[in-house]
Specification:
heterodimer, A: alpha+beta, Uridine Diphospho-n-acetylenolpyruvylglucosamine Reductase, domain 3, 3 domains, globular, B: Uridine Diphospho-n-acetylenolpyruvylglucosamine Reductase, domain 3, 5 domains, seven-stranded antiparallel beta sheet, 20 strands, 35% helix
């Protein structure tokens, strides 16, 4: 242990050691720059150290066994915000909340509402691919990423994409990183696509039974309306007595007014707008509610299978903490469960061509079932080779597949 | 060295009729939409079914013959050219729309389906396929996937990558894999996202699942004309900054306007304008679209537009759009050859970059016409020339390189939608270092270890870190 610490101190300076660790627990190192991350990982690979990568630890438990923990929390610079070009560049360790605040001061935002507690880092949102309800109208995480800089497991600095909104120069390695759980390198910097803050932003809610709300959701879809978000929330998550269908309309005043009128015209006029002062809190509580139980996972099926998938989840894991985008077939579940139950559910879902991604969980659970679990035939060897490409010595401890 | 072609094996799969062996037949496939590169393939094979395609690739793999998949050949980077030692696999016979699922807003197609045909098939359900390259009446979905094609309406709706949910892919050794899932959630890492835009280097897509988008019920199309390129560029910035996202925001300069107006695609653009902007707004609610259109009109006027005209009916809208979409064709009137450039710059730098390009054109005594996706900052400076004039051709190449460098210097990139192909290989080291290029090459070799699919494209091997190190050692 001392040998490792001495080497790290010699490489990065004593201030990079946040926590020297103790018997059985490796030290926590906070490199201050992407170059320092590269230096640390190059050395780790040469020395055969295993490295756990973490942000602030507010999303994934910082419990993977490793010789050292590399935290991105000092990589927290917002390097540039260009409102006129709608592009920002930020380092991975910047808190999502802080980034959002800085962007808002310049009249722009990244149109994502990822689940998680305050302090969750931008890097965590990117590598987990944590899209929230806004994925309905504004797209998943990958659609908001223009480029990334990563450091490979053996310390090479690789860039992909760029700072412009259209870019097909070279292979799209950025997409590999969005939702890659850090298995293909450490994301140290991202170029983000911004939008001007919506001039109007209204949320309407309707409370009822899940079946009733599903029908209403179908009705809204059939009217051709694509709101910023259309989310079905379980009673516990919405903090209401029944299930809630929440529609978020965001954009120009005229657009929001028209969308609001369409929503109100459905469900016999039962939708009610949330008071403006409650809107932010409503969505924030839902986002936080998905990050406080031990396990969070997501499924992605076809929209018309959403009801069946929700039934299956309720039957196999319970349905206390659920947030679903019925217009997309995307479902996020949180709660307590076991590896055995997850394996069983994943097998059942595989038969329906529905992937299950384990977003959060304890180390024993993650290593038992993997973030992705089994792949389709022929894909597993490709993923393993891709990992070797970006982490030849297996320095980065990331359990993406069950067998690892 | 040219290996012996497995003619018999291929003939047994596709039949004599669907092999092109004679030079006169192969010459049709010697170039794509970019006239500056030509390569005559050793052979052209046209499989008619997915199974035939897989069998063809397996035969070529066993024989160790490199191959190049090709759609309609409308690409603009030389991406689908096959060298004389390679076989070209034309996918145009794989043109079946396998499923349209209006309930889930998705469709499954074979790679040779023409882009516009898919939208036509989805239209009765109030849906369309959103990516709309200018060549959409000819280009194929498979080619769009390979190039991650864009189009005017990608400003609001996103590029091809945002619309592909799942792929069935045959790898260079004939193995068939499925990427993605019917709902679009990746099954593991996002290999669909990685595959789209890989220019055929990772394999051949045999089935493509795409998202369909509700067709907007209200559309307003505005044409604004400006007396300077700078004020048109500033109008673009003003609209983007306003928070209104037009469905499309296109610009044409005077040279392009006049080429269009001189052609059968004449759209009534004002010939004396320095530039016109074509702005389209759409949505589900007419009142909202009208309000946004009024706001945009104010922004255009405030930025110095001489006049703003709104298409009165669908026919006029179609006419305005036809001029824009056929602009490349119209430029064929200007000269024998045309270099279609494709670069992207930060939108706020558009006015400066346009002036720089005009300066380069003047310095090299060239005719440069600009028609481009202004809302995305995706420039298409097109240089008209005669390739038989050696001096002129040299000036075109030097000017092209300077234009690219100017876009990179402005914080931009070398291609927004046309791809690298062979045409832009030389520019890749200007934006990526050796380690990044090496990583790209290593990723390609995960899918295609012997680099047999579309060899020599996208990544300039000489600029990769391991090549440079090897050369240094020697």
């Amino acid at each position: 242990m001392n040998g490792l610490l001495d080497k790290v101190r010699a490489l990065l300076g004593a201030e990079a050691v946040l926590d020297p660790g103790s018997a059985g627990i490796g030290p926590r190192i906070a490199p201050p720059t992407p170059e320092a991350v590269a230096l640390l990982l190059r050395t780790a690979t040469e020395e055969g150290w295993k490295v756990r990568v973490e942000g602030t630890g507010s999303w994934q438990p910082a419990d993977a066994p490793a010789d050292l923990a590399l935290t991105t929390r000092r990589l927290d610079a917002v390097e540039s915000i260009e409102p006129q070009d709608l592009v920002a560049t930020a380092q991975a360790g910047v808190g999502w909340d802080r980034l959002r605040q800085q962007l808002a001061e310049r009249g722009v935002w990244v149109a994502l509402d990822p689940p998680g507690l305050a302090g969750r880092t931008m890097g965590s949102v990117v590598v987990v691919g944590s899209s929230g309800p806004l994925r309905q109208g504004l797209g998943p995480v990958r659609d908001h990423l223009l480029g990334v800089t990563i450091v490979t497991g053996d310390g090479r600095v690789i860039s992909s994409g760029g700072r412009v909104v259209k870019n097909v120069a070279g292979y799209d390695l950025t997409r590999l990183q969005a939702g890659g759980f850090g298995a293909f390198g450490v994301v140290v910097r991202a170029h983000l696509r911004l939008r001007a803050l919506p001039r109007a932003d209204v949320t309407l809610t309707l409370e009822g039974t899940r079946e009733d709300l599903s029908r209403v959701g179908d009705d809204i879809r059939e009217r051709g309306l694509v709101p910023a978000a259309m989310e079905l929330l379980s009673p516990a998550l919405a903090r209401r007595a029944g299930w809630v269908l929440a529609i978020r309309c965001a954009g120009s005043a005229a657009q929001v007014e028209a969308e609001e009128a369409t929503v109100r015209a459905t469900a016999d006029g039962r939708f009610a707008p949330l008071p403006a002062e409650e809107t932010h809190g409503f969505w924030q509580r839902a986002a936080e509610g998905l990050a406080v139980r031990p396990v969070t996972l997501r499924l992605g099926g076809l929209p018309d299978a959403t009801d069946d998938l929700l039934d299956m989840l309720a039957h196999q894991l319970g349905d206390e903490w659920i947030s679903a985008s019925p217009g997309l077939g995307a479902i996020r579940w949180s709660g307590e469960t076991t590896a055995e139950r997850l394996r069983h559910l994943r097998r059942t879902l595989a038969g329906l061509e529905v992937p299950l991604t384990l977003e959060r969980g304890s180390w024993p659970l993650r290593v038992a079932v993997g973030h992705f679990g089994a792949y389709r035939e022929g894909v597993g060897p490709l993923v393993r080779e891709l990992r070797r490409t970006f982490d030849p010595a297996g320095t980065l401890v990331v359990p993406i597949a069950a067998e690892e | 060295m040219l290996r012996e072609l497995p003619i018999r094996g291929l003939e047994a799969i596709v039949g004599h009729r669907h092999l092109r062996r004679a030079t006169s037949e192969r010459v049709t496939y010697a170039s794509d939409g970019l006239p500056t590169h030509r390569r005559l393939p050793a052979l052209v094979v046209l499989p008619g079914t997915r199974d035939e395609l897989i069998a063809v690739i397996r035969v070529l793999s066993q024989a160790g013959i490199p191959f190049v998949p090709r759609g309609a050949g409308t690409g603009l980077s030389g991406g689908a050219l096959a060298a004389p030692d390679a076989v070209l696999i034309a996918l145009t016979r794989l043109n079946r729309i396998l499923a349209v699922d209006p309930q889930n807003r998705r469709a499954v197609v074979e790679p040779g389906v023409v882009n516009a045909r898919l939208s036509a098939a989805a239209a009765p359900h109030g849906l369309h396929y959103a990516p709309d390259p200018s060549s959409q009446t000819a280009c194929t979905i498979g080619g769009n996937v390979a190039e991650n094609a864009g189009g005017p309406h990608c400003l609001k709706y996103g590029v091809t990558s945002n619309h592909v949910l799942a792929l069935e892919v045959v790898l260079s050794d004939g193995r068939v894999i499925e990427l993605g899932s019917p709902g679009g959630e990746p099954w593991g890492p996002d290999l669909v996202g990685l595959f789209v835009g890989s220019e055929g280097n990772f394999g051949v897509a045999t089935r493509i699942s795409v998202r369909l988008t509700p067709t907007p019920s209200a559309i307003r199309t505005l044409l604004a004309d400006f007396m300077s390129l700078r004020s048109a560029g500033e109008a673009v910035s003003a609209i983007i900054a306003s928070g209104i996202t037009p469905a499309a925001l296109e610009m044409m300069d005077r040279s392009c306007i006049n080429a269009v107006e001189d052609s059968v695609y004449a759209a009534g653009y004002p010939r004396d304008a320095a530039a016109v902007l074509l702005v389209e707004l759409d949505g589900a609610a007419p009142a909202a679209v009208d309000a946004d259109a009024r706001a945009v009109e104010e922004l255009l006027t405030g930025s110095g537009a001489r006049s703003v005209r709104t298409a009165a009916d669908p026919r006029e809208r179609e006419r305005l759009w036809q001029g824009r979409k056929k602009a490349f064709g119209a430029m064929g009137r200007l000269s024998r050859d045309l270099v279609v450039q494709d670069a992207v710059v930060p939108r706020s730098s558009l006015p400066d970059v346009l002036e720089t390009i005009a300066g380069i054109a003047e310095r090299y005594r060239l005719v440069v016409s600009n028609v481009f996706h202004a809302g995305d900052g995706n420039l298409h400076p097109n240089i008209s020339f005669d390739a038989t004039d050696v001096d002129l051709k040299e000036r075109v190449e030097t000017a092209s390189a300077e234009i690219m460098q100017a876009c990179i210097d402005a914080g931009g990139t070398i291609t927004g939608e046309h791809g690298i192909g062979v045409d832009k290989l030389r520019y890749m080291p200007l934006i990526f270092d050796g380690d990044s290029l090496s990583a790209m090459r290593a990723v390609r070799r995960v899918f295609d270890p012997l680099e047999m699919v579309n060899p020599g494209k996208v990544v300039p091997v000489h600029a990769c870190r391991e090549w440079i190190q090897g050369r240094t050692r020697q």
